[in-house]
Amino acid sequence: MVGASDLGEKMDLLLKTFANMGQQLKEMQTAIAEVTTGVKELKDQFKGQDGRIINLEKDTNRHEFRINNLEDRQRRANICFRGFKQDFAESKRLIHSIYLWLQENKIKVELNEFERAHWIFGPRNSGNQRDIIVRFFAERRAAEIYRELKQITNLNQKGTPIWVLKDLSAQTLQARNQMKPIVDILFQNGIRFSWKYPAMILVFKGTKVLRAKSLEEGKAMLQQLGIESDFEQRA
């Protein structure tokens, strides 16, 4: 038979075991609390990093926009001509040849208004067509000549069609190209529009000015103009 003293010893052992387990449990709870705090701190750090990354992306986008805007601004004194064949003129006589061609098309311009002109880089085979960039000393004169040329129908050089374009940065051209579905529909419906830098479409409807700088805004613009189209499929 187990004596009272043995039971007492076993009871003491159990109490000590429970006490040790309680202490271990407290230590585990403390460790868990420390880990939880550490995880929270890490989350806060990552949250702060996310905020800094977002701010950095915004700053980068702002700087890119400013750079693109500056590039477009310095191109505003330029006019781009597309369609001239390579044998139209040598580079050193390009200004004079463009000057004579403008005179033939009744555009009043003086030789001293030209700053420079060059063929855009490309193959030099005489049969190929390359764009010509003409720069004027004054932005105002470039804009006036551009508007006058756009009023001429069937603009050509010895039967070859010539297109007059604005000289834009690659980023602006890409942004405007994304609006092509809207532009195509406006053309098809005979609606005149203009561009606002870098890639906003402006349509004048009575006293109102309709604006669109994204496909969604373009879709809303078409609805305001009462145009039904297969925009959903095309966009």
UniProtKB/TrEMBL annotation:
Coiled coil is among the record's keywords: yes
Coiled coil residues, start to end: 25-73
Keywords: Coiled coil
Annotated Gene3D superfamilies: L1 transposable element, C-terminal domain
Superkingdom classification of source: Eukaryota
Keyword Cytoplasm found: no
PANTHER family noted in UniProt: L1 TRANSPOSABLE ELEMENT-RELATED
Protein name from the UniProt record: L1 transposable element RRM domain-containing protein
Source organism: Micrurus spixii (Amazon coral snake)
Species lineage: Eukaryota, Metazoa, Chordata, Craniata, Vertebrata
